[in-house]
Design a protein that fits this description.
153 residues, alpha/beta, Glutaredoxin, five-stranded mixed sheet, two-stranded antiparallel sheet, 7 strands, 33% helix, 22% strand, globular
């Protein structure tokens, strides 16, 4: 798994509208909370997605953007985002390339990805990693703490 202090692997992934999102699009402009989640519409993933949604203003105020990634299709992500009013991009990683690059794919991408959140600074360096399948609130709390630290530095 990618660790704190390492360069975040570059990626490109498909969004619900069919466009491509690339990590390098944020470089030099915004910090990124990149969170990997197992599956759209499951209880834990819905809770996590909504936690990021509900605190997005705080994230934006700290010069950052939220990006979610799972193996679900772009079409399923579109339904998930619409159902829960998720205002941030959800990337389809149906071939597990992004999860594999970050070291969070399970069994070579055969099972849903692990629940892991990376905070990536504007230079593309990982500043924090949260790994917790069940303590879902930890992901947004720790990401915000890291962003506050970066913002005050």
């Amino acid at each position: 798994m990618i660790a704190v202090g390492e360069k975040a692997p570059e990626f490109s992934g498909t969004l619900a509208d069919g466009k491509q999102l690339r990590l390098k699009d944020f470089r030099g402009r915004r910090n990124v909370i990149l969170y990997f989640f197992p599956k759209d519409f499951t209880p834990g993933c819905t809770k996590e997605a909504c936690a990021f949604r509900d605190r997005r203003a705080e994230v934006a105020g700290l010069d950052a953007e939220v990006v979610g990634v799972s193996f679900d299709t772009a079409e399923k992500h579109a339904k998930f985002a619409e159902s829960y009013h998720l205002p941030y991009p959800l990337v389809s990683d149906s071939n597990a390339a992004i999860a594999s690059a970050y070291g969070v794919a399970t069994l070579g991408g055969w099972l849903p990805t692990k629940r892991v959140t990376f905070v990536i600074d504007k230079q593309g360096v990982v500043q924090h990693v949260t790994k917790s399948l069940l303590d879902i609130d930890r992901h947004i709390d720790e990401a915000l703490d890291t962003l506050k630290r970066l913002h005050s530095a």
